């Protein structure tokens, strides 16, 4: 996400004084709720869905994720790269390529 978008999210929250409601637990709940609303877009079909609705729900998830990053003082690049390093170790290309098996089954 570019810095201008991040600042827009922060400004939106600050102007409404919503930070007081943004405990890590409340944000985690909100992320889960919005992710479920995203899932609802595909409830009856994986191919027949409203892309605009999908975009709105996905944006809600990402906005709450940014709010949580801010609340916890986390850097998105750092936490993603840390997790990717772990994923790469658990799922080496030579064993995981083309497979949907869990790392413990490879």
A few lines on this structure:
It contains 5 helices and no strands. The mean pLDDT is about 95.
Shape, per Cα inertia axes: globular
- H/I helix tally: 5
CATH fold naming of the largest domain: Helix Hairpins
CA radius of gyration: 17 Å
In which range does the helix fraction lie? 55-70%
H/E element sequence: HHHHH
CA distance, first residue to last residue: 34 Å
Structural class by SSE content:
mainly alpha
Mean pLDDT: 96
Name given to the CATH homologous superfamily of the largest domain: MazG-like
DSSP, total strands: 0
pLDDT < 50 runs, ≥5 residues: none
Largest sheet: none
Strand content: under 5%
Assigned CATH class of the largest domain? Mainly Alpha
Tally of domains? 2
CATH architecture of the largest domain: Orthogonal Bundle
């Amino acid at each position: 996400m570019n810095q201008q978008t991040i600042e827009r999210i922060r400004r939106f929250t600050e102007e409404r004084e919503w930070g007081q409601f943004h405990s890590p637990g409340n944000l985690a709940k909100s992320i889960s709720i919005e992710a479920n609303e995203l899932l609802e877009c595909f409830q009856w079909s994986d191919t027949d869905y409203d892309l605009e609705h999908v975009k709105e729900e996905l944006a809600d998830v990402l906005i709450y994720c940014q709010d949580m990053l801010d609340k916890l003082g986390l850097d998105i690049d750092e936490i993603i790269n840390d997790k990717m390093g772990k994923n790469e170790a658990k799922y080496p290309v030579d064993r995981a390529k083309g497979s949907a098996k869990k790392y413990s089954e490879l």
